[in-house]
Amino acid sequence: MSNLLEIRWHARGGQGAKTASTLLAESSMAAGKYVQGFPEYGPERMGAPIKAYNRIGDAPITIHSNVESPDVVMVLDPTLVGPVDVTEGLKPDGIIIINTTLSPEEAKQKLGSDEFKVATVDASGISTECIGRDIPNTPMMGALLKLVEILPFDEFLARMREDLSVKFRGRENIVEGNIEAMRRAFEEVKLA
Predict the structure, then answer these.
(1) pLDDT single digits (tens) 91-124
(2) Global pTM?
(3) CATH number of the domain residue 48 falls in
(4) Cβ–Cβ under 8 Å, residues 110 and 91
């Protein structure tokens, strides 16, 4: 991948795509990267399809628009595959990471293309087990860090622990549940 990594997140409102893009940007910035992290949505309600974006690079980022040709596509809700063209603009050597119980081969067949790599992880199952709720955003970040070199995983987890400790002050079980969910997804993601 080039010096500038572009990521597009597909999810439904309430699944944490906006939070994930923000946390990923903050962690990367703390590690010395130049970043952008922002959502795209209108007056949609909880459950409506939304997109969020990241740009992460080693030099200042001068692009100020949505990500049209991502290196990586993150799909937090597998029911969006089909109704939404989640592969639109994905670079031929890009990666799509899908929250699903399907194997990467089954997901690739469902997408109907061999132009890019497909990875799958049961982020919903992992988050339900580790956090007690189906919020797949943090496990999906763990899967992303396994497949794309943004920063060392242990460094990322340390930064995430700091950020989540502020966000969930006094609720250490939620912080540790999210850290465990990222670890598990890092270990369990499969690539075809």
Answers:
(1) 999 999 999 999 999 999 999 888 899 999 999 9
(2) 0.93
(3) 3.40.920.10
(4) no
